[in-house]
Amino acid sequence: MIFLFFNKLIRIKIFKLVLMKSFLIFITSLFFLVAYGQVKTEESAYLKKENYIPYPGTSNDIEKTVHVAIHIWQRADGSGNMRDIPAHYARFIKIIDWMNGLYAKNPDAPIPGVPYKVDSIYDSKIRFKLEKIYFYKDATPDSSYFYSTDYLHNKKLNDYLKEHFPERVKTLNLHIFRGSYAKASGYSEYGSIGTFYRVNPEMSEDDVHDWWLSKHWAHEIGHGLDLWHTYDANGSYQQNCKSTYRDFLWDVYDTTAVPSGKGCNVDLITDKSNNNLMGGQEGNSMSVLQMGIAHRATVIENLYNKGYNMRDFVTGYGYWSKAIENNEVWNVSMKMYQDIVVKKGATLTIKTEIQMVPKAKIIVEKGAKLIIDGGVITNEKYYNKEWKGIIVRKAKKSSSVESGELIQMNGGKVSHAKVKYK
Ligand SMILES: [Zn+2]
Predict the structure, then answer these.
(1) pTM, whole model, 2 decimals?
(2) Distance (Å) from CA 218 to ligand 1 centroid
(3) Helix (H) or strand (E) holding 137
(4) What is the pLDDT of residues 148-167, one digit of tens each?
(5) Are strands 192-197 and 322-324 parallel, antiparallel or unpaired?
(6) How far apart (Å, rounded) are the C-alpha atoms in residues 29 and 11?
(7) Residues in CB range of 118: below 8 A, 6 or more apart
(8) Adjacent-strand bridge partners of 174
């Protein structure tokens, strides 16, 4: 009897599981239907992380450089933080070099792995260039710039620069000051990074320490690129908790595993059991979907780390052009790192601000249309230079194909570049 009862209980359980499974499948198919429907509209296509993965040999295969500067906050007498000596410059150059290595050499075996096949890319195509190292002597009576235990002290420092040295906020700023916050080594919010040391102002002058610092910055810049931790639940970042979120990382989290709670429908990865750049161990593994999110943050405004403006610190140019073969409407502001070619028969409508890097141009082929409807095509903010402009192809009189067309309406304009008809 007991056995039978037990058996029945199991069967009920299995039945319930099957029911739940069919329900899940139903919900999942619903999601894919909705998701597929969304892909059709241009806006969501440009929000999709999958559309930014830098697969080698594709038009996404563009190396992008994040321009950084280091700001060291000392006491009024110049003490209490790193000194302005050549040895420290050499250290920082080495640290930035290591950061480049962390983003360029991706181990192809993320830990833990998922049981199904996923892609991996060796090089994330994101690089860093150290533009300058600055030192500041804090003359406030309480050394309130040099020392802080407040969250977002980095913002206070960056705001100070914005006011006194506006040219210095063109780079992604890495501030070093004394203090602490929770158990962190620093944080990355509002367009800059705060890093603090607690004891030794020279920050232990050895390679072990400096190697750690390179990993710390690589990780914090990851946050600037809209990546969230792989080990703690944060619904608002949409990457590590619910498989239905747009930015869920299905190549990092095993979607077939039974969830362990925390309101997530996947298992979180503990900070001790992974080699991910965004894990607690600050490894250097990046999944292709993480690379997609990172590259998206160089093109459109930050979706999660709001107001960060990461793309303003980034430059690059890829020789693969972006071909527009079907009618598209762009209503999400984007920064373009390549030429745009509007192909014969297609119409590209711009309803927002599109930023072009200095080397980039737009070609409107014969039989193609570019409509700037209330939008603006302009230069990007880091170099703040002219871009290569728009070329509208003219057809010969005898030709059966019509000339390309550029239509400006509702105040739509071209800025910091010329339009040529040829
Ligand atoms: Zn972090």
Answers:
(1) 0.88
(2) 10
(3) strand 126-138
(4) 999 999 999 999 999 999 99
(5) unpaired
(6) 27
(7) 250, 251, 287, 288
(8) 70, 193
